[in-house]
Design goal:
Number of domains: 1
Structural class: mainly beta
Number of helices: 1
Order of helices and strands: HEEEEEEEEEEEEEEEEEEEEEEEEEEEEE
Largest sheet: 13 strands, parallel
Distance between the termini: 35 Å
Shape: globular
Radius of gyration: 19 Å
Helix content: under 10%
Number of strands: 29
Mean pLDDT: 88
Length: about 325
């Protein structure tokens, strides 16, 4: 759920706002995997770090797997991959793009990893719903098409338990070529006290013109135990990063910049819009330089009477943040 009206940090209330959530989107397909791995091999793979890949991609029809386990999908180029009731799946070094639906759908699955994969010109890059152990790390995304309620590079929807990650990805939306919502959305999803959902060390460039789209949104519709640390966002949309509900949520040491655009609103906020109890919120040591649509600096917002997140006073304006904080071309598709 998102701020949709332009308000300043001095405002005492926010009224008449439209609240939004997300729905499922599925697509069917068919293909045999290139290789298979054991559960132990999948579990022990090292984390992928975003960098240029050297892969010869093999053209493929869309992939659809139901009830499959211990499979690696590697080096293919396709419009969509759909996994339903699957477990121990690795999607590695693939191209998924130029499709009308979701690029990778993960529904009611366990232990699925997406790494080193290009996601481009699709409604949403990765949509994981009702699943556990989902790791989307070290990928590249370009130009999410939407329309609302789609438009995310990654959305977790009722993803629960341990091992859930959205880390070290590079995502870029180019205005006029995309129609994004939140670049990363964590909706009604919960990690655990010892292993929260991680949204860490991502680079996000570009967003808008949606009046509800943000760079990183936590606690949408509630949830628990989610962290978003060390991310860098440049011009990510109407909002940079936010927590809109939930318990035990953390936003720590991120860099958020936006120039004035017709849709820009606020860099960082906490506002419980979930309709549920919200507590144990930490938002601290974030660097922000965010100009809203009227030209006013609007780095942070906290509604009147709200719970004050732990560390709220440590978030600060950093004038050194600019368009050059991230490269102008963050992602290219081979």
């Amino acid at each position: 759920m998102k701020v949709t009206a332009l308000k300043t940090w001095q405002a005492f209330a926010m009224l008449g706002l439209a609240l939004s959530s997300f729905s499922a989107c599925k697509k069917e397909a068919n293909l045999e995997p290139a290789t298979t791995d054991t559960t132990a091999q999948l579990t022990n793979r090292p984390n992928f770090k975003s960098n240029a890949l050297s892969v010869t991609f093999r053209a493929s029809a869309p992939i659809y797997y139901y009830g499959r386990s211990n499979i690696t999908i590697y080096g293919i180029s396709t419009t969509s991959i759909t996994l339903v009731n699957c477990s121990n799946i690795l999607i590695s070094s693939c191209k998924v793009g130029n499709g009308s639906g979701v690029g990778i759908t993960i529904s009611n699955c366990k232990n699925v990893r997406v790494s080193g994969t290009y996601l481009y010109n699709v409604a949403t890059g990765v949509y994981a719903v009702g699943s556990q152990g989902i790791n989307v790390s070290g990928n590249f995304g370009l130009n999410m098409k939407g329309p609302f309620p789609r438009g995310q590079f990654v959305q977790f929807d009722n993803v629960t338990g341990t091992g859930n990650r959205i880390n070290s990805n590079k995502f870029q939306n180019i205005q006029g070529q995309s129609n994004p919502e939140d670049a990363i959305s964590v909706y009604q999803s919960s990690g655990t006290a010892t292993d929260p959902i991680q949204v860490n060390s991502n680079q996000i460039r570009g967003g808008g013109p949606s009046s509800t789209g943000s760079g990183i949104m936590l606690g949408d519709g509630g949830g628990a135990y989610v962290t978003a640390n060390w991310n860098t966002l440049v011009d990510p949309g109407q909002c940079g990063m936010a927590i809109s509900g939930g318990t035990n949520m953390t936003i720590y040491e991120n860099r958020i910049y936006a120039k004035q655009q017709s849709f820009t609103n606020v860099g960082l906020y906490y506002w419980n819009q979930s309709g549920k109890a919200s507590s144990a919120i930490k938002i601290s040591t974030n660097n922000v330089n965010f100009i809203k649509s009227d030209g006013e600096l609007n780095d942070t917002y906290l509604p009147y009477g709200s719970l004050v997140p732990t560390g709220w006073s440590t978030n600060y304006y950093n004038k050194s943040l600019s368009e050059t904080t991230l490269p102008a071309t963050l992602v290219t598709i081979p």
